[in-house]
Amino acid sequence: MQHQRHRAAAWTAHKRDVDALALRATLATGGGRQAADGVLTPGEQAVTVPAGGTVEVPLTVDPARADKGDYYGRLTAASADGAVTVHTTLSLIVRGPVHRLKVVSYDNDGQRVHALPTIWGAGGFVGYTDRDNAVAEVEEGTYQLTTGGTERVDGKEILRQVVLPEIKVTKDTTVVVDPRKTVKVEIRTPRPAEQSGILSYQTYRKIDGHAWIDGTMYFDLAEALYVSPTAEVTDGTFEFASRWQLVAPLLEAGVVGGTENLDAYYMPWSRLFDQRGERLRAVAAGSTTAPDFRHARGRLAVVTDEEGVAGPELAQQAARAGVRAVLVAHFNDNGWTRWTPHGERTEVPLVRVGARTGAELLKRVERRTTTVAFGGTARSPYLYDVMQVSAQRTPDRVVHTVSERNSAVVRSEYADNGGAQRAAEQRFARRPYQEFSWLQYTRHAPTAFERTEYVTAGTTEWHHHVLHRTVSDVDTPLSSGLQDTPRTYRAGEQVRQTWQGAVARPSIPREGVPATVRDGDVLRLRIPEFTDASGHWSRLISEGGGGIGVRAPSSDTANAALFRDGRKVTDLADAWQDVEVPAGSAAYRLDLRTTRESADWEYATATDTSWTFRSGTTTGPARLPLLQVDYGVPVDERNAVGPRRSYTLGLTVRNQDGTDAPRGVRTQVEVSYDDGRHFTGVPVRDRGANAFPATVRKPSAVRGDAFVTLRVTVRDVAGNSVRQTVKRAYLHRG
Question: What is the pTM of this model?
Answer without folding.
Answer: 0.89
